Amino acid sequence: MKQKNEKKAEKKTEKKTENPIVSIKRYVCGMETFQPDTLLQNGCREKITLPVNVLLIEHRKLGHILINTGCSARLRRNPLRYSRYHAAHCLQFGSGDSIIEQLGTEGLDPLCIKKVLLSHYAPECCGALPLLPRYELISTAQVLSRLSGITDQKNIIRSTLPAADVKRRAMGLYEGKTVLSDYFRFIYDALGDGSVLSVDLSGHTEAMAGFYLPQNKLFFAADAALDERMLDDAAVPQKKLLALQSEPDDYLSVLSILRQFHREHPEISIVFLHSQNCL
To answer: Most CB atoms closer than 10 Å: which of 51, 154, 197, 279?
Structure first.
């Protein structure tokens, strides 16, 4: 009898510690070209083309969840604004690069996407939001507020805003224990079960969220840095790179925190929107 009770207790413990995240998959939904030597001191002179990463999470109870949506043809709805944005960012994508197209080739209906976690309101992050039929948009209150405040019809992001009837939810504070607490003041619970946590990484934009998957030891730090090479203390930002940030001081502060986090927790992978080795 005692052995049966012990086995039951073991099973209950296993259920409690079971990872709600079944799988994580990366999709490349566009490419962007950069000139490292104009952005970083001692950066290489040759241009580099980096991916626009989108993560698809399969959650045991909540289904399929996207972190960002990547680029889509919606960005070209305003040709003048798009041409200017393209010239400044060297953005490249084709119809087959859309997350919608890529899901379709794998037999996944866009209806399977139940939630979208949005890091920030950049064209390459929310490009396909209007193409998804039904989902809940989740981010920090600051990101959702900035997104709702885009009313200029000429703004390139205007064409990527979600439909009016899309449910939007700001993440609540996380009250559990997490390694993030030593580095960030506020920790948010993206899905309500602790499987995806979020922190404010403002600097590149006025509001930006990063997403951390504790049991997968994966930290998606969005556009807080160009890519993982920026985690090296030897990578010193040029003035031009800082001029591209919404809040340069906050950008440097967040970068410093991420570098410290990386040094002290090498077991956790920090990946970015443009990381070549995202998973």
So the answer is: 197
| Nearest Cα residue to 103 out of 77, 75, 79, 135 | 135
Q: For residue range 69-98, what is the model confidence (pLDDT) as tens digits?
A: 999 988 888 787 888 888 888 888 987 899
Query: Could you give all domains of the chain from N- to C-terminal order, each with its CATH number?
Result: 20-271 (3.60.15.10)
Cβ distance 94 to 76 under 8 Å?
A: no
d(CA 208, CA 201): 5
CB contact set of 224 (below 8 Å; sequence gap of 6+):
201, 203, 204, 208, 210, 251, 254, 255, 258, 272
The 10s digit of each residue's pLDDT in 159-183 is: 888 888 999 999 999 999 999 999 9
pTM for this prediction: 0.91
Alpha-carbon distance 239 to 99, whole Å? 34
Band (pLDDT 50/70/90 cuts) for residue 1 is low
User: How far is Cα 252 from Cα 254, in angstroms, rounded to an integer?
Assistant: 6
